[in-house]
Amino acid sequence: MVATLGAPLAIVCVYSLRSRGAYFGVEAPWTLENYARLWDPLYGAIVLRSFWIAAVSTALCVVLGFPLALFISRAGSRKNLYLALVILPFWTSFLIRTYAWMFLLRDTGLINTLLQSVGLIHAPLPMLYNSGAVILGLVYGYLPFMVLPLYATLERLDPSLLEASADLGARPFDTLWRVIVPLSAGGMRAGAILVFVPCLGTYLTSDLLGGSKTVLIGNLVQDQFTGARDWPFGAAASLALMAAAMALLFAVRRKGEDLL
Amino acid sequence: MAVLELRGVSKQFTSQGATVEAVREVSLALEPAEFFSLLGPSGCGKTTLLRMIAGFDSPSAGEILLNGASIAHLPPYRRNVNTVFQSYALFPHLCVRDNVEFGLKRKEGMRKGAVVDAASLVARVLEQVRLEGKESRMPAQLSGGERQRVALARALVLAPDVLLLDEPLSALDPQLRKQVRGELKDLQRRVGVTFLFVTHDQEEALSLSTRMAVMNAGLVEQTGSPRELYNRPGTRFVASFLGAMNWIDGVGVRPESTRIAPAPGANAVVTGTVFLGSVQHIEARLESGEIVTSQIAHGGALFAPGDRVCVSWDESDEVRFPT
Amino acid sequence: MRRFLGLYAVAAFAFLHLPLAILAVFSFNASRFTVWQGFSLNWYRALVQDRELIGSAANSLAIATVSTVAATIIGTMAAYGLWKRASPWLSGGMYLSLVTPEIVTGVSLLAFFEWSFRFLNARLGMHTVILAHVGFSLAYVVVVILARLRNFDAATEEAALDLGATPFVAFRLVTLPYLAPAVAAAALLAFTVSIDDYVITSLVAGVDSQTLPMVIYALARRGVNPMLNAVSTVIVAGLGALVLVSERLRHR
Known about the structure:
The complex is a heterotrimer. By secondary structure, chain A is mostly helical. Helices cover about 75% and strands about 0% of the residues of chain A. Chain A is globular. Chain B has a 6-stranded mixed sheet with strand order 6-7-8-3-9-10, sandwiched between helices. A 5-stranded antiparallel sheet of chain B has the order 13-17-14-15-16, with no helix packed on it. In chain B, helix 2 crosses helix 3 (about 120-130), helix 2 (about 95-110) runs parallel beside helix 4 and helix 3 (about 120-130) crosses helix 4 (about 145-155). The longest helix of chain B has 18 residues, at about 175-190. By secondary structure, chain C is mainly alpha-helical. Chain C has one domain: MetI-like fold, CATH 1.10.3720. Chain C has helices at about 1-25, 40-50, 50-85, 90-100, 100-115, 125-150, 155-160, 165-195, 200-205, 210-220, 225-250. The mean pLDDT of chain C is about 85. The chains are: A mainly alpha, B alpha+beta, C mainly alpha. Chains A and C meet through helix 1, helix 3, helix 4, helix 5 and helix 7 of A and helix 1, helix 3, helix 4, helix 5 and helix 6 of C.
């Protein structure tokens, strides 16, 4: 018993590392100036862009992930196979999956080369280094995080509810829209959190696919801690990010629901 | 001398500011080789009491003595008391033989003296529960009844002073239950170990025990032989809990002790009949408005709602409690 | 509707897997352009000869192994402790860890380490990376083990105690065998997460400890490089094989 309680205590110490935002840094005086700077229109634009991109990516994940989750939940004996197929990309490197899109989208990338060789376009489409590419990369990277909770909820759906719906006269699409979708709200909420928060704080995707035009909160923080050497400001920004994530979690939580 | 003695045992639980008295000043004494049942409705504290005897909870007050020695401070693995759990709790990764041998191996580990010939002990107990030939099966491959027998064997092989059984029949089908009941009684007689059997099913308690106690809301209402408790209940609760009881004007009469006959001018009217196969239950409303249930044997007269009847009984069959 | 779902699923799976497949195909391309010019193993040869790359891969493997072992052991004990006695602090900390964006975790760990260096005479290096990896892997391990424990009948452990086993022996002989598949899955998860991490590692690594993701990132930043295709294919194949093998073992 002592051993099992002692280890957790050690972990609490480790966890305390995690939310340790530092107010110090190079200067000693305590100040709220760093937080004030976040409201500066320059940084405000960054914050807004981050929220916008995260929101669009999450919405796309819901729309694209729902049919897939539905399909798998009805797949009978092949369920595990399909689940494995969804999870497999996730197991491989996130960095590499982001790089794959670089390979495909750049001006001399595969897609442009193919389209040009077929004659559909005559000059390369600028598909890389913009918000669209970032959204694409994010959706690609986090889709499994939406599909899995959705699948878990859909799988637990009582089939007799669907039968009752049909019995009472609803056509398949009605049943889908009025019964299945509302009942999967819990899964959608879990998936939305699992997607939105990482998207909000994304660094790699916006760095590699977004170029210098798409600076998001994650890039801002990273920059402050390395290049710009303004740790206090970086800390303020990252804590603000954390606060946004926590607020979202609270807002979306319902009593009795467990993320895991 | 009593094998197991409980003296003034109580247990309180506190949760979210409220204190619950799960067990209140229970005193019991179990004699060697008896089949003792602890009967009561859900939540009456019988399982809590069992867990305290086994060692998984400690009493808030009172003493627990095994063969005269206090065991309340000992952890479960140092008490010579073993439990058959409600869910059987067989180790899923071990075969039947390894499950049964588990306790013997622990004894060796603690050097309570090397257990001589564990293998033959295991073989013998498996024979006693009629599981010979199934030693290599895994729990998942056994039926409910077989799993229960493994749980029994596993506990009995250690020759405990008292064997605790926590509603061991509740997970079985009704048909199987009756059969296993008989086997359990035989087993106890053959093995001669004191059984402490916890249940909410009064039929089980009445048919199996040499002595029993009825518990309600943390208290023991009455202790005695099944016959004593049924024929001379000591409290209203015991009277109502064991079998059925009619309460007429504060006096209790059992349905099977009443006689009912058609009586055209009488003031009691039949309100309903229930056919139960071997017996019939006739419900009649008396002049006072109270409802009486009368039990008559199969093949008795047929009654219909609206018939006027006369319900009677012997005074010696009455059960009275001072108010 | 069934047909629509089926078609959609095919498209979705294609979306998920094609990019990587294409990367793999082009890793065998003789030229560095996205026009196929013949099969070649050039890039793989270049890969093997790149000292920096191989060195960083060795680092990554070492870090992943050590942090996986540590995280699995500590995480399993933590999950077991949590299961026995719920602790809002511990579960809260766990959720926090899972939900925190990587950049925030990385930055706070960096700040913490730098602060601690005022008292300890140390610098950023392999050890800080390992500590960081153990830190963020813990939550994943705890989640996996807890999920398995939720299906465990507590009476089984009590039965072991009842039959004469001490708590530690009961854990070793009864609970641990039950947890074995989950421990393996958790270890695999921790390993993959560690091998792949860029953001946190890059912040706490210091100058002399390069990991594979860091080298890959540097190369990717400079533009498309077919050697990266080769690296990608190797990693994907390797991790994929690891996952398949473990799945096989698990469902035996």
